[in-house]
Structures are given as structure tokens and as C-alpha cells.
Specification:
Elements: E1 3-12, H1 18-28, E2 32-37, E3 43-49, H2 51-63, E4 69-78, E5 86-88
């Protein structure tokens, strides 16, 4: 069963390769969706796939790449969507 979740990641998450790092892990977990910088300095991550893989990504998003400093991750269920791959927006 496929599911989708939306994450809003706060902290030092722009300009530190957070989106590329997220894309790499999402692809490894066979998730689709996107990672996008928001004007307020946060990163939005939308991920679809197996619930266990989304949970693993959620844990990873709290860590981020070495140069990042994650202070908060908001998470909410999202309507399932058919997305062909995981993209950086």
C-alpha cells in the first residue's frame, strides 16, 4: 500500500545540499516526490511510497547532511499522488 506525507524542515537547511541529500535517500528507499526550498528558509519534502520507507525517511530528515542543522520537522499526511520520480524543485 502506497502513502504520501509532507514534511516541513526548519533550521539551517538551505545552501547545505539538504535537497540533494534528501533526493539520494528517497531514491534508495524507492520513494517518489520532491524536495523544494521555501521562501521562509524551510525545505518542503513531499514523499510517496511504502509507509515503512516514509518512516525511515522521516527519521533521516531529522538528521540531514553534515552541514545542516535541523531544528524542527513538521509532518502531515497528504493525499496520495502518482509521481514518477523524486525530484529537486
Amino acid at each position: 500500500m502506497s502513502a504520501c506525507r509532507r514534511f516541513l524542515v526548519s533550521g539551517r537547511v538551505q545552501g547545505v545540499a539538504y535537497r540533494a541529500w534528501t533526493q539520494q535517500h528517497a531514491k534508495e528507499l524507492r520513494l517518489t516526490g520532491w524536495a523544494a526550498n521555501l521562501p521562509d528558509g524551510r525545505v518542503e519534502v513531499f514523499a510517496c511510497g511504502e509507509p515503512d520507507a516514509i518512516e525511515r525517511l522521516s527519521s533521516l530528515l531529522h538528521q540531514g547532511p553534515p552541514a545542516a542543522r535541523v531544528t524542527a520537522v513538521e509532518e502531515q499526511a497528504a493525499e496520495p499522488m502518482t509521481i514518477p520520480r523524486f525530484a529537486i524543485r
